Amino acid sequence: MDWRRDSAGWPHAQRSTFERVRPHLWHVQQMGHGPDLVLLHGAGGATHSWRGLMPCLAEQFRVTAMDLPGHGFTRRGAMQRSSLPLMAEDTWRLLDHLDCTPTALIGHSAGGALALQMSITRSTPVFGINTALEDFSGVAGWLFPMMARFLAINPLTSSAISRMLRTSDVNGLLKGTGSTLDAEGVALYARCLSNADHIEGTLAMMSQWSLRGLRGRLDQITAPVHLLAGSADRTVAPATSERMAARMAHGTHETLTGLGHLAHEEAPEEVAARITAFVQHLPEASAPVQMRP
Length: 293
Prior knowledge:
The protein is of the alpha/beta class. The chain contains 13 helices and eight strands. The chain has one domain: Alpha/Beta hydrolase fold, catalytic domain (Rossmann fold, 3-Layer(aba) Sandwich), CATH 3.40.50.1820. The protein is globular and about 45 Å long. The two termini are 30 Å apart.
């Protein structure tokens, strides 16, 4: 996506900056004052996903969100750095550049998996929202693997998919996650999904990621972790949060009734209250351990 062409109407655009931190050109948004919280969106999303949640959290925290490499307005500087460990390494490098030491990492879906990977490197508390730690269900269960396979075969796949999704019922795709968004939310996803660069970045992420390695290291995460699940999520089975939380030393889980995969967009104030309570109850011993990767 091109900022000069596509930024009109982008949520919190006045808070946006661009940071060149090897190897990517990152789109970053920051707001608020206080302890640092970092927001990590899911595959196919961007900073727009936090449009409702960021202002709620900014009342008590300094909140930092970024478009992950290849997503939204962040330009990838290397094609083969979309794997989970390398994306975690690059994200920590960005946060160091921003002088941001997160009190907690907040991740949605694949962003929750990224937060856990980052916590392995530097022991940092994690709050996950419908965290993707197993294969996707529903539409995403066949759509993402299919698109990733096509990308490996034909690099022009991203353009073809963006043209297809531009004319498809994006609202229907989103409802397939178990969530219902307002017109603005649907329009923002449609804008992303109609962009070939954004699709290519999403496909690269899905094709290079492997959750198996992360699942095998969950017992190495020593910081507090809270996994929030929406009972209506059709993308990541709500029971996943309970199973995975049990594998971590200080893992807990919670289910919100009636919310889907995009719970933080459906009920930002409710999710913000859960995040604030999590952070307020963190023991001092869980403060991030700063180790350069």
